[in-house]
Amino acid sequence: MNRFLIILPIIIYLTVMIIIAIYTNKSSKKSKSDSLEEYFIGGRSMGGLVLSMTLIATFTSASSFIGGPGVAYNQGLGWVLLATIQVPTAFLTLGVLGKKFAIVSRRIKAVTVTDYLRVRYKNNFVVIFASISLLVFMTAIMVAQFIGGARLFQAVTGYPYIVGLVIFGITVVIYTTLGGFKAVALTDAIQGIIMVLATICIFGGVVKYGGGLDSIMSKLVSINPDLITPFGVDNFISKPYILSFWLLVGIAVLGLPQTSVRCMGFKDSKSLHNAMIIGTFVVGFLMLGMTLVGVMGKAILPDITVSDLAVPTITMKVMPPVLAGIFIAGPLAAIMSTVDSLIILCSAAIVKDFYMNYSKKKVSSKKLSKMSFYTTAIIGLIVFFISINPPDLIVWINLFAFGGLEAAFLWPTILGLYWKRANATGAIASMVVGVGAFFYFSITKISIAGTQAIVPTVILSLLAFIIGSYIGKKPEQETIDLFWI
Amino acid sequence: MKNNVKNRFKQADKEALITVILYLVFFVWWYVFAYGLGSKPASEYSYILGFPAWFFYSCILGYLIISFLLWFVVKKFFVDIPLDDNELENDKNKDE
After folding, report:
1. What's the CA gap between A267 and B84, in Å, rounded?
2. Is residue B94 part of a domain?
């Protein structure tokens, strides 16, 4: 009976997601705008609330609800300090790419980041390298998210792994395929709200259960005073280590295609302004709230050994079953809202960046719509099937996926927009050096002055970009006009 | 019309610059309070609203202040510019 009470809110919630997709699917068919633009970028119609929520929801993944707070459980407030680094990421991305990216992408009718790179650099290698790294890294991320979600489901409800995977995996695939980007953005918005509610509930629950903040803090000090310092237990969070995160989850996020593509899809300047403000406020709330839950949980249940189980275990302890079900919907929402965005991007990469660019035949827009629909479904199903019995290779690639995407896209995206001299030679050099360096430094674990792999990666790929751009020819005047006048 | 478009990009560049400055402000605030107040032994910490002072200033107050500053800056310096080239021409025609 208890198990059913937990699973009930989840089922209601998943049903709502699918209803939304059916509804957007119907309304999109009536829309006058270009069908590809409609399916892959939602007809550039996102308002401020939806834009901010979809940005947050895409960015907040399983790790924000499970992994991060799990580490915070072991490391204390220092890990919350680290999570705080993500507070300004939303406004940085929107503010820096924001309007210029939006204006240019409308002008060149871009619906994917690769579209933009193609027009800016006019180079096949850039397009193919970008699309392939996008497909490989994103598949790995999606599988990892699915695995995380299914394990969480298993831990909380007691149903087998496969049951959880089928229930929410299939839901994501269905609503993404049916509704396209618009459904993704709308469901993301709802998922964002669910994440906020889940955070409020469990935060309140933990504080109450622990007898107030004062008693929780003094309990932490009695367990280990390191828990309330910025440095973590035994200086686990050293300064070079934490400062690396200003690149990894801060500045370099500007390069993530799943983030930057959202800067193509908003309706007008006002939406952007509002999204910056709402996004920052909400993301800060989620990050601070959830990691603090992890920290405070240590005072309530100090003996959890598997850090990924810290938050689910704490939740079950402090909440009644129905509310626990709602809470579990929080991380599930985070997972689904990350995966749905990636599915649609991968589908766009195949249909738009590969098929439309390199096929000689002219295809009707009706056929393209159909193709997008089936491609989306197939990608979703492939990811689903890989997750049933995930090969080690995928799990391994996932370790490099987030940073790898940043390494490939960061400088070509930003410098293409803000540096007139930027050209294909620079972009190619930067992508190859970036991805190569990230793998090299991650695998060999060679650390420059105590920093993480992302730091030398970003610096080397920047140098490669600059040197390459000066070696290569200046971009044509036509390109400059397109991007600067 | 060209002139007008150019201003649009100039405005976008200016806003991007303001964003970066605000980002740096947050970084400095975060760093100074966390390590300025947090580097001493935990037994010497003072507390505000139940949290250690370094954490309260760096993370909680920092978050609230950056949210407020951002709101202020966006209202004050960010301009509602058209994003579509067509829309721009329409606006221009209306003005004339």
Report:
1. 10
2. no
Look at residue A74 and tell me if it is in a domain: yes
**CB within 8 Å of chain B, chain A residues 89-148:** 91-92, 94-96, 98-100, 102-103, 106-107
Task: For residue A255, give every residue at least 6 positions away whose Cβ sits within 8 Å of its Cβ, in sequence order, or none.
Answer: A405, A406, A407, A408, A409, A410, A411, A413, A414
- The C-alpha atoms of residue A297 and residue A206 are separated, in whole angstroms, by 7
Q: Which of residues 17-76 of B touch A (CB under 8 A)?
A: 18-20, 22-23, 26-27, 30, 34-35, 38-39, 41-43, 45, 47, 49-52, 54-55, 58-60, 62-63, 66-67, 70-71, 74
Tens-level pLDDT at each residue, chain A (485 residues): 467 777 787 888 888 888 888 888 887 776 666 777 888 888 888 888 889 988 888 878 777 888 889 999 999 999 999 999 999 999 999 999 989 999 999 999 898 999 999 999 999 999 999 999 999 999 999 998 898 888 888 877 788 889 889 988 888 898 889 888 888 888 888 888 888 888 898 899 999 999 999 999 999 999 999 999 999 999 999 999 999 999 999 999 999 998 999 898 899 999 999 999 999 999 999 999 999 999 999 999 998 888 888 888 888 888 877 777 776 777 888 888 889 889 999 999 998 888 888 887 777 778 888 888 899 999 999 999 999 988 888 878 887 898 999 999 999 999 999 999 999 999 999 999 999 999 999 999 888 888 999 999 999 999 999 999 999 999 999 999 989 87
Enter the tokens of residue A353. 């960046």
Tell me which residue of A316, A14, A300 sits closest to A156, measured CA to CA: A316
A434, part of any domain? no
Report ipTM (2 d.p.). Answer: 0.89
- What is the domain range of residue B29? 2-89
Pick from B11, B54, B55 the residue to mutate for testing the A interface (most A CBs within 10 Å).
B55
Q: Determine the residue type at B14.
A: K
Q: What is the least distance, in Å, from the CA of B93 to any CA of chain A?
A: 19
B59 domain residue, yes or no: yes
Domains identified in chain A, total number: 1
Q: What total of structural domains would you count in chain B?
A: 1
Q: Is residue B47 part of a domain?
A: yes
Q: Range of A263's domain?
A: 2-392
**Residue contact B67–A277, C-beta within 8 A:** yes
Residue A421 within any structural domain of the chain: no
In a domain, B52, yes or no: yes
Q: Would you say residue A424 lies in a domain?
A: no
A193 near A60, Cβ under 8 Å?
Answer: no
**Chain A residue numbers touching B28 (CB-CB < 8 A):** none
Q: How many CB atoms lie within 10 A of CB A356?
A: 15
Query: Looking at chain B, how many residues does it have?
Result: 96
Query: What is the CATH classification number for the domain harbouring A127?
Result: 1.20.1730.10
